Amino acid sequence: MKVLVLGGTSESRTLARRLAVDTRFDVVTSLAGRTSDPRLPDGEVRVGGFGGVDGLCTWIVDNAVDVVVDATHPFAATMSANAARAAPKAGVPLVVLRRPEWTPDIGDRWLHASSAADAARIVESSFERVFLTIGRQEVGAFAGATGTWFLVRCIDPPEGPLPAHHELVSARGPFDVASEMATMHRHRIDVLVSKNSGGAMTEAKLIAARRLEVPVVMISRPAPTEHGVLAHSVEDVWRSLVDRM
Ligand code: NAP
User: Fold this and answer.
1) 129 CA distance to ligand 1 centroid (A)?
2) Backbone phi, then psi, for 87, in 5-degree steps?
3) Cis peptide before 100 (omega within 30 of 0)
4) Cα(182) to centroid of ligand 1, in Å?
5) Is the pLDDT of residue 118 over 90?
6) Is 103 close to ligand 1, i.e. is its CB under 6 Å away?
7) How far does residue 95's CA lie from ligand 1's centre (Å)?
8) Using CA atoms, how far apart are residues 45 and 183, in angstroms rounded to an integer?
9) Model confidence over 59-107: pLDDT tens digits?
10) Is 100 close to ligand 1, i.e. is its CB under 6 Å away?
11) pLDDT tens across 180-211, in order?
12) What is the β-pairing status of strands 129-133 and 229-231?
């Protein structure tokens, strides 16, 4: 079974590792090519956009793909929407791997934001020292918050405008709770901004915020796509693929 995994997440690498050692599968993982030094999955890898829905559809047909697994990040909404249209167009099934969302614990102070721009409005009106952990693509939404200081953490430096007062830290997870607490304490952080990515890889910042009683501005996920079989774990995807054999 030829499986195209749309990747860019730790689960997509776990899935590729599992499929690559099983001779019943022929796996190719697709990466967008955004990160300069990505962690490469096992098995075959291709890098770069497909050229929209039609490009992806053509790629699926030309490469005799049997099943597409959308294992992209929950905030990669365009790629997911493209997969939801291209897979049926190419006549192949789509399995969508979505890790569960994070939810607040009792006592947590979460402020819900619908977008990065909404999160920027919240922090600008109420906070002074922000730990910004949303990746690099939407940091520009905070550039207008001139009265606020930001600790901006991303893997690669953001392009485009940055907040007037900031420090940039280049780092890649996973992070542990002790180091997240030390970071927040050292920089006198009074709010954490996060996307609701879910998963264990970057959850330590939420535990650190809880322990330090630092509020969290949590950016909600984009609406999920309608098409495809939903799976919540790599194990679920694997079972769904085996069931189709
Ligand atoms: P996006 O906005 O949904 O996608 C924009 C375009 O990038 C897509 O239309 C597609 O180009 C290309 N693309 C995205 N993912 C691709 C993939 N896996 N393989 C080939 N092309 C891909 O995506 P994004 O938010 O920029 O994220 C890019 C990648 O980073 C994703 O693979 C995602 O899993 C990963 N990631 C994203 C976030 C996040 O917060 N957004 C966080 C961690 C990791 P074409 O239309 O030309 O095919």
Assistant:
1) 30
2) -60, -50
3) no
4) 32
5) yes
6) no
7) 17
8) 35
9) 999 999 999 999 999 999 999 999 999 999 999 999 999 999 999 999 8
10) no
11) 999 999 999 999 999 999 999 899 999 999 99
12) unpaired
Give the pLDDT of residue 36: 87
Q: Which amino acid is at 25?
A: F
Whether residue 29 has its Cβ less than 6 Å from ligand 1: no
Summarised one tens digit per residue, pLDDT across range 126-183 is 999 999 999 999 999 999 999 999 999 999 999 999 999 999 999 998 999 999 999 9
- Cα–Cα distance measured from residue 10 to residue 31, given in angstroms and rounded to the nearest whole number: 12
Quote the ligand 1 centre to 190 CA distance (angstroms).
31
Q: Is the CB of 116 under 6 A from ligand 1?
A: no
Q: What is the mean pLDDT of the chain?
A: 96
Nearest to 70 by CA among 112, 29, 20: 29
> Can you give the pLDDT at residue 225?
84
Would you list the DSSP string of 5-63? Answer: EE--SHHHHHHHHHHHT-TT-EEEEEE---SSSPPPPSSEEEES---HHHHHHHHHHHT
Cα separations (Å) of 42 from 22, 26, 36, 45, 80?
12, 11, 18, 8, 22
Q: Give the gyration radius of the chain's Cα atoms.
A: 19
Helices (H), the chain: 10-20, 52-62, 77-90, 116-126, 177-186, 204-212, 234-243
Percent of the chain surpassing pLDDT 90: 95
CA of 225 to the centre of ligand 1 (A): 15
